[in-house]
Amino acid sequence: MATVTPHRVRAGRGIELALLLxxxxxxxGAYALVGLNTRGKVxxxxxxxxxxxxxxxxxxxxxxxxxxxxxxxVILPTVVALNGIGLAMxxxxxxxxxxxxxxxxxxxxxxxxxxxxxxxxxxxxxxxATTGRCAATPIRRCSSVSAWSCYRSCRASGxx
Length: 160
Hints:
Layout: H1 13-39, H2 46-67, H3 75-100, H4 114-118, H5 123-131, H6 144-157
Helix pairs in contact: 1-2, 1-3, 2-3, 5-6
């Protein structure tokens, strides 16, 4: 008769952290390359952009470490890398639209990662965060503070 010895399963959070750092380099590097290729210099807000993406990614890493230690260690870094590349693409499209003279139709850029934050809000609040207009009262302009108050009101009363 064969004896079964228990095998210790590793959580993989260290691998996830290493891959997450690589994903952050890819995302911030893509943003820097768009600025270098279109304007000839690195964007002035690259530090805030990188810090914002890093805080979101590392915050999610901590949540996964505490709440789901045996989750797949590749999914979060893949999402962060694709998010960074997508935000770099949005930045490139914004530059192209401004060069064509269509910049008046674009929402004011107040936060480079506003699309990342907006994707986690309910639909009425994501409109507020991406367009700068409140879904409940379209005349009123929104700031990041009012987007969060919009989120609280949506949670209390449901989306409008």
